Amino acid sequence: MRWAGLELKSEFELELASRLLLHIWVIMFVFRLVAILCLVSGFAGQALDARTFTDKKGREIKADIVSVDGDSVELKIIKKGGKTYMIPISKLSETDQGFIKEWQRNKESEKERKADGHEEEASSAGRGGGTMALMDKYDLKDNYDADWPRLVSIDIGMDVSVISEDEGVSKFIYHSPNYEFVCDVALSKNVVKKFAVMFEATREFCRLLPISTMKAHVPGEQFRHKIFLFETKEAYMQNGGPPGSAGVFMSRGGNGVVMVPLTSLGVIKGKGGYRFDYDGSNKTLPHELTHQLCDVEYFSSGSVGWFSEGLADYIATTPYRSGKFMVRSNLDEIRDYVTAYGEKGRGGRALGEEIEAPDLKEFMLQPYQSFTANGNFNYGMGLLLTYYFFQMEDNRANMVAFLKALKTGKQGQDAIDVLLNGRSYEELEEQVAKAWKSRGVSITFR
Ligand SMILES: [Zn+2]
Q1: How far is the CA of 284 from the centre of ligand 1 (A)?
Q2: Are 109 and 143 in the same domain?
């Protein structure tokens, strides 16, 4: 076809494909146990919302901007192995020209931020203007003063609606109160309602935790978190899902997306279409959904790793059934998850009841890549530490002060100084070890 004065080799066909640099959090299943190993990598994954560009003659094509050079834009046409073309910007519609300018502006401000040295892990989680801007935009209030929830429960009879169903491009969109599901096959409302329960319950858990993760507080009528669902594992992987994973959070700008193959949701193909087969007690999804709901500052140096993953595992390890998280009785489950393989083969980190831990300062300040490099141990230890600050310190004042400091831009040792609140690392090590000792776990710090 001809487009914007160029001969393009083939029609654009894939709705869901384009290449962007993405940082991904990966969950891998190992046998029947869920051994969780999340990594951030400069993964050349695929984004899900390429733009439709229109040339001056009104012809459309799906593409991603690769770069802008003077008067020309380099567009990567969306299709398998899509080629890139340099196109004079003037050949594109006014709207597209505006979009390209905006794109270039964003790129430049991103460069400036990096030059300021503020990018690090925080930007890998997506700095979309930060939480302050989010709170302003949606008029949100923090909830640091709320009580720790004892039970999280949602209405399992919630409304689900069909937004659009387009056979032609295999795009089917459904809404639950706080989520938008974009699927490549048609699903019945009843099936969507069944699996949406776990999504909504996880969001409610994040909302009720008095840690002010504001992304969980934005009302669904104003913003729905996006979930891309794939009929097959192959389609999931084609779109950037890591092989062997049951679901993945991909951060892109301020709001990341979660991608999930239908099989991970217990949705299977039957004679008359898809049906919901089981109420999966799957720890992968709540973990990834928590990343999606976690405010960007909580991925800063000083909290990334031990806390960002500790929080996701805290939610994922709390007993869940049919729209309910049993928070008040989660200690046993969390301890078993860290020390053993968990009940009924449901996964665990098997660190044992006598744990040799590294120096706490090193552990808390290590870069995310080193955190994930020794994933099994670090996730388990991160969960013990997060649990300690959540539920074992006399009051949560130190934790709250720490989270507030992160929100105001403190990072690294500066942020942890607030958490230490005058204690040395050695003193904190003693307190953590003592608290866990009384719950049957012995930790020896190096
Ligand atoms: Zn993770």
Answers
A1: 9
A2: no
